[in-house]
UniProtKB/TrEMBL annotation:
Source organism: Neolewinella litorea
Positions of transmembrane segments: 7-27, 39-57, 69-88, 94-116, 125-142, 154-176, 188-211, 217-240, 247-268, 274-291
Protein name as it appears in the record: DMT family transporter
Membrane topology: Multi-pass membrane protein
Database matches in SUPFAM superfamilies: Multidrug resistance efflux transporter EmrE
Subcellular location: Membrane
Family: Belongs to the EamA transporter family.
Domain EamA intervals: 11-139, 156-291
This protein's UniProt keywords: Membrane, Transmembrane, Transmembrane helix
Gene Ontology cellular-component terms listed: membrane
Species lineage: Bacteria, Pseudomonadati, Bacteroidota, Saprospiria, Saprospirales
Length: 294
């Protein structure tokens, strides 16, 4: 039974926004030593390693006919975004990436509309238009090294990652309504994370990279470990618990707080800021709010 949000629930919401909003600065610091591909396979592999104590119990609950769709959930909800975000951040600031990631709910609605034939209301269509316009403006006006055209191109990778998350969420909603969320998480993470872990420490060149970088290499490994265990595994557990206690509407408000945290981390790390970013992010968040109307 869902309960009215308590003070503890509000504190949990703030904690989640801090954890998820910090993901992008952790990726940025990891990129100082590792390649985008190495960060992706490490994140996936270490997440699977952290979930391994739960694997036997939850894998037994899965039937063979469910595996293909769960593998697709793992690919779209975990594997592909794990590559897209660090690749995007080779040319985008961490704050811009974090602000663009607030498009997740909007992309989830768009996938539901176009693929799963969920009928939208007028406010949702308006929200989609406003949100995408805000995202384009945000990518265009945010200061960067490569210029506006480069930022727009790499912002497209963040948008693609958001569509992946939207696809994963819709697959779960349409095919696994009765399957415990923890079982979905463990199975999908394990399916894509175990091969990634093996690759990272064999052909991925992770160990030589750490050795060659010395102390900086171990710091970078620490950042990616926090990203995997904290921002990926622990945050998922906390979020699912929050949804069970308070409902999806309250829990989903974390989408509005993550961009703020990402922006603050960027400012602390001396990333440049333009005043036009503020109206742009407001447009994105208004679009997200309208797209979540029922």
């Amino acid at each position: 039974m869902q309960e009215r949000p308590t003070v503890l629930d509000f504190l949990t919401l703030i904690g989640l926004s801090l954890i998820w909003g910090t993901s992008y600065i952790l990726i940025k610091w990891g990129l100082e030593v590792f390649s985008a591909q190495q960060i992706a396979v490490l994140r996936l592999g270490l997440s699977a390693l952290a979930l391994s104590p739960f694997a036997i119990t939850h894998l037994r609950r899965i039937s063979l006919r469910q595996l293909p769709v769960l593998l697709l959930v793992g690919l779209t909800g975990t594997a592909i975004p794990s590559f897209l975000f660090p690749i995007a951040q080779t040319h985008l600031s961490s704050s811009l990436t974090g602000m663009l990631s607030s498009l997740n709910p909007l992309c989830t609605f768009l996938v539901a509309w176009l693929i799963f034939r969920t009928r939208p209301v007028r406010e949702q269509v308006i929200g989609l238009t406003v949100g995408l316009l805000g995202a384009v403006l945000l990518a265009y006006v945010t200061p960067g090294e490569g210029g506006q055209s480069t930022q727009l191109a790499y912002a497209g990778l963040v948008l693609a990652a958001c569509f992946c998350y939207g696809t994963s969420a819709n697959l779960v909603a349409n095919f696994f309504r009765k399957l415990p969320s923890l079982t979905i998480t463990v199975t999908s993470f394990f399916a894509v994370g175990l091969p990634a872990l093996i690759y990272a420490f064999t052909l991925g060149g992770v160990v030589p990279t750490i050795v060659q970088a010395g102390t900086a290499g171990w710091w970078a490994l620490g950042y990616v470990t926090i990203l995997a265990v904290g921002s990926t595994v622990l945050a998922s557990f906390v979020f699912f618990r929050l949804v069970q206690r308070t409902g999806a509407v309250f829990a989903s408000t974390v989408s509005y707080l993550i961009p703020v945290v990402a922006l603050l981390w960027g400012l602390l790390d001396d990333e440049r800021f333009a005043l036009l970013q503020m109206p742009a992010i407001v447009l994105v968040l208004v679009g997200v709010f309208l797209s979540k109307r029922k």
